[in-house]
User: What shape does this take?
Amino acid sequence: MLEAEEYRIPYRTVPAEAVQDELARLASAFEHALEELSTQGEWLKTNLGRDAASVFDWHVGVLKDQHLRDNIENLIKDKCAAAAYATSTVMLNYQRRFMQMTDPLLVERIRDVQDIEKRLMRHILGEAREDLAHLTKPAILVAHDLGPTQTAQLPDTKVIGVALDAGAATSHTAILLRSWGRPGVIGLNDVSTRVSGGDLVIIDGSNQLVIANPDDATLEEYRAQEVAYHKLSGELDELRDLPAVTKDGHRIMLHCNVEFPTESAVGVRKGGDGVGLYRTEFLFLRPEGPPSEEEQYEAYRQVIRGAEDRPVTIRTFDLGADKYTQQRQYEQERNPMLGLRSIRYSLQNLDMFKIQLRAILRASVHGNVRMMFPLICSLMEFRQAKMTVHDAMEDLEETGTDFNRNVSIGMMLETPAAAVQVKEFCREVGFVSIGTNDLIQYLLAVDRGNERVSQSFSGSHPAVLRSLRDVVRACTQAGIDCSLCGEMAGQPLYTLFLMGIGLRQLSMAPANIPEVKKLIRLVTTAQAQRIARRALSFDTERQVTNYLRDETRKVLPEDPI
Ligand code: PEP
Ligand code: MG
Assistant: This one.
C-alpha cells in the first residue's frame, strides 16, 4: 500500500511486529521536517528579515509540541495504525480546533497546520516510496493516487499491477500503465480503504475490477482467463507483418505512441508503421532536472533507431497540467489544466525549449522525423514556436552542426480554439495530429483525470464526433496530412467511425495495434463511411456508443469491446 500526500490517508494498520518500524518512520519524519524548517527559516531571516521568518517559528513550535507527538505515537502503539494514517488523523483533529475559532487570525492557522502535515507526510511517504524500489517479491500496488512521475518509475520495480482510488482512463497515469503493459485499474474511489497490505489481490484490467482475497473457484477461473488472454494476444500477434488494409484495398497507417525511448522498438515488433507520437516530456520528469542536449539527442536517436526507418513524430515537451517536473512539484497552480502547460510553458522557458529543439533537429538527420507542438491555441503561438525552431537552427549553423533543415513542423490539434480555426492553421502547419484526450477534456469541460466526472468524458459525445469530422474534412480539403493520436485511436469502438470520416493514420499504444488492425482488415471503406454517417446523426452520447458497439460487434463478435 502506498499513500498519497494530497489526500486524507485511509485507515490502515500494520502487524504488531511492525509498530516499532512505524514509530521510527515517524521520528525520522519529525527530525527531517525540523531540520528543513531550521534551514529555510535561517535563509528567510537573512534574506527577508525576522518577521518573514516568524511563521516558521510557529511551525517549529507545533512540531515540538510533545502532546501532539504523543497523540500520534499512541495511535500507532495502541491501534497498530500506520504512521501516515496516525499523523493524518491527529493533524486533522488539530485543524478542527482552529476551524471552531472565531478570531480570523487563528482561523488562518488552518493553512499552516495543513502545511505542517504535508511536510511530515512528504517525509513519511518518501520512505514508503523508497520501499517500492526495494521490493524483493512481485507485488500489486494499491494506492489512493499515483502521479505520472511515480508511475514512470514502476517498470524499474517489482510491481506487477496497480489499483488506484483516483484517476480516469485518459489520465497520463492510465496511459503510462497501458504502455507499461501491466494490468491497472483506476478510479475505484475506495480500493485503498478496502485492501490491506498482504492481501491476495486479483486485478482484472479488462473489466476494471479488483478482487481481494478471492475464493479458490474465483482464483481458478482467473487463472484460466489469464491463459486464454495470452492465447488471444498470441493469435493477434500473427497479424504483425500484415498491413492494415481494408477489404477494398485502402491502407490505414497504424503508428504507435511512445513514452520511453525503448518503446519504439516494441511498437515496431507489434506491427506499428512508425511512431506517431513520442511524448518527450517523460524525459524531464526525473529528480536530476532537465536532460542535457546530449542526453536528449541520444534518447531521440534511440526512438528513431527503434523505428527502423519508419516515420517518427516527436512532440516537444508537454509539461504542466498533470506532468510537473520535480523542480516544479511544489509550485502547483490553482487550475493546472488551464494553466502554464504545454507550448505556453515552452514559450516562457525559451532556453530549455531551444535545447530541446536543437537536440531534435540534430537527431532528425538519422531518420524520417517530424516535430510538433502540443496544445496550440492560436496562430501566434504556432508562429512563435516555429520562430524558436529557426533560432535553434541558426545556433546549429553557427557551430557547423549537422541538422535537417527541412524537418516538417506540425501541431497537435487538441483545443476547441484550434478546431474552430483549423482552416487558418492549415495554411501554416506542415501537418495536424488530433489529440482527442485533451480535445474532449476542453470541448466537454471535463477533467480527463478526475474519477468523479469520468462518466462525462466520452469520445461518443456528438460534439466530439462533429468536431473530428470538421477537422478531418478541412485538412483533407487543404491537402494537409492529418492523423489522430489520442486514446480514441486505439479503441476498436471508434475505429470504423474514424476511418469513415476519412482518417488514414491512427497512433496508439503498441498493445492496441493488433486488434485495431484486425478490425480494419475485415471491413470496406464504404461500410465505414456508412457507419460514420449514421453515428453523426445521433443526438446523444449513449445512442452513439450503443450504435458503434453493435456495429463493431457485428465485425468482431469474439472480442470484448
Ligand atoms: C491528447 O491529448 O490526445 C494527446 C495525445 O496528448 P496527451 O495525452 O499526452 O495529452
Ligand atoms: Mg494532449
Residues 485 and 507 are 4 Å apart (CA to CA). DSSP finds 23 helices and 13 strands in the chain.
